Amino acid sequence: MKFNLAAKDIHSKARAGTITTDHGEIQTPIFMPVGTAGTVKSINQQQLKNDIDAKIILGNTYHLYLRPGLDILERAGGLHQFIGWDRPILTDSGGYQVYSLSKVRKIKEEGVTFRSHIDGSKHLFTPEYAMDIQRTIGADIIMAFDECTPYPCDYKYAANSINMTHRWLKRCCTRFDTTTPKYGFDQTLFPIVQGSVYKDLRVKSAEFIAAMGREGNAIGGLSVGEPAEEMYAMTEVVCDILPYEKPRYLMGVGTPINILENIALGVDMFDCVMPTRNARNGMLFTKNGVINISNKKWADDFSPIEAESDLVADQVYSKAYLRHLMHSKEMLGAQIATLHNLHFYLWLVKTAREKIMSGEFYAWKNKMVTILGNKL
Amino acid sequence: MKFNLAAKDIHSKARAGTITTDHGEIQTPIFMPVGTAGTVKSINQQQLKNDIDAKIILGNTYHLYLRPGLDILERAGGLHQFIGWDRPILTDSGGYQVYSLSKVRKIKEEGVTFRSHIDGSKHLFTPEYAMDIQRTIGADIIMAFDECTPYPCDYKYAANSINMTHRWLKRCCTRFDTTTPKYGFDQTLFPIVQGSVYKDLRVKSAEFIAAMGREGNAIGGLSVGEPAEEMYAMTEVVCDILPYEKPRYLMGVGTPINILENIALGVDMFDCVMPTRNARNGMLFTKNGVINISNKKWADDFSPIEAESDLVADQVYSKAYLRHLMHSKEMLGAQIATLHNLHFYLWLVKTAREKIMSGEFYAWKNKMVTILGNKL
């Protein structure tokens, strides 16, 4: 993986760059749609490529490990082959879902034992196994196995947790560096900064992670319930420590406003289920604010979903039609809303990049954050 | 509406023709995907047009009347505008769903009172109102309000029922002929032959319907549980009476084999929920037979869904991936399977047409009906 910085905003820490992987280039800042179980819910890979122009998507190790399982993924030739997607993929380490989805889980130095949320079967994820699994899934960018602390989290727990996360990281790196990719293209491992909302822990973790010298770095454990201001404070502290010349990935963030604010702090990569999950609940993100399409007020609004968008679905389908589909619980509602929201998120980061290149980012960002929160 | 016959098979009663509507031409034989509530479930209108090349789709009057309702449809400028579909649409009269979906319904000479399956509200459909509703929905081809008898149905009930259906037809025609389209394009009304599985009643009904002199005619009350041989016997009797130079529409039929056999008897138009509904349950129709993609045997079959198909989804997604999506209850499974099945149904009628034109239909049909029933 390579990362080249093309421009830096003069009024903020925002940067524009290009990540190069064996599956193609990704211009940053970038948003990565979440394809949990090998599918970005409700849309297909042609739509992702042609309608949304997604440059990279996410897969969730926990879900893919449980279903379809490593045997199928390996025999398919990896996740790209299995799902028919030839652009970059990033996988998380599985840790986050183990903590959030699995009812029974136990964290020990060795790793985490948990029971599948599907069938209750018992499993053990260790840092080494998380690397092996991600080698088999075959994503271009894979993530270290860490503990994502909840919010709130007491200081002592968070302090102990980053120490374990750092020990786990060394084990991840050792395993990663002594194994090879399985499908003929390169993989790279991103470590993850933790430390909850404690500045000194974030500093300590960021310094540790920076010293590992990997090709890119991530910030985890944010957007887990803390106030946005705390998130921004942590991102700022961490971005100032993580290497300037390497991409920075803020995991699981967030709203369009969160994304713009974090771009201004020097983040390059984002993922979040918000545009896809909220789409399925009828919430649309637009350039003018947020629409709850299920509201009665849209029932007779025959204007296009977003007239000035270059997404076909935004032009040919009306708000009234989308409202009807949602109201009738028709699957097409989720599809159209998902296309819309992902298209908007990718428009947002693409426009942020253009504004960084042209030196207008900061003013544009400040204008947008006052608009994007509007409820239409 | 115009209908031009282009060719007739020499070994069967199959015909190839062209229906011309204000929304474009339809080459027959044709299969019409069912878009119940203004959406062919799980796929969008661009996919219907570009991937499937559907020439005409169906809307269900009962569903559209209840949701989004006539006020919204009229203010949208009709169903075409509302859903963003500029090719022909056919609507049923609402009768069938009143009988099948509504728990409380009462059939009288005036019409049918029923309660909505959605909110229990009470409604009355009369022949006149069914015309008014379909004027408002604005389909190119609209259907007479009839009684679709169940199977089995005793002779006396069926005999009385066709008499009422015929009286209702006169009322439909009077209303239709004294009203005008609302959206600037022509509509045409098809009457429906009933008579259950009784040959003499079918003859009587077909003669009555033929004498009405409408631009096209339909056969209803079949594929409601009777053996296929009884269906074919009724279709044959009726097709021999219905005018040769007008299109014949067999409502709600059916399996790929049913379609081929009925084409051989002189049917030009078909609709059925089977390709879409069964897709959502993981049943795929292919040139080589039927696949239940949920079966374990497909879990590691990495071959394309149907390699020789010209549908992109058939080529880029494997059986193993589709099986994974179905197994994981991912919406994309329904989308891909729906695209596949509709593409197959439209391949089937398109190929039937080519074979009619080239004089090879009968032999091809006989070969196909031995293959299409295979369970793969």
UniProtKB/TrEMBL annotation, chains A, B:
SUPFAM superfamilies: tRNA-guanine transglycosylase
Source superkingdom: Bacteria
Organism: Pedobacter heparinus (strain ATCC 13125 / DSM 2366 / CIP 104194 / JCM 7457 / NBRC 12017 / NCIMB 9290 / NRRL B-14731 / HIM 762-3)
Gene3D superfamilies recorded: Queuine tRNA-ribosyltransferase-like
Name by which UniProt lists this protein: Queuine tRNA-ribosyltransferase
Pathway where it operates: tRNA modification; tRNA-queuosine biosynthesis
InterPro entries per record: ArchSynthase1/Queuine_TRR (IPR050076), TGT (IPR004803), TGT-like_sf (IPR036511), tRNA_ribo_trans-like (IPR002616)
Function: Catalyzes the base-exchange of a guanine (G) residue with the queuine precursor 7-aminomethyl-7-deazaguanine (PreQ1) at position 34 (anticodon wobble position) in tRNAs with GU(N) anticodons (tRNA-Asp, -Asn, -His and -Tyr). Catalysis occurs through a double-displacement mechanism. The nucleophile active site attacks the C1' of nucleotide 34 to detach the guanine base from the RNA, forming a covalent enzyme-RNA intermediate. The proton acceptor active site deprotonates the incoming PreQ1, allowing a nucleophilic attack on the C1' of the ribose to form the product.
Keyword Transport belongs to the record: no
Cellular component terms (Gene Ontology): cytosol
Example of a GO MF term: tRNA-guanosine(34) queuine transglycosylase activity
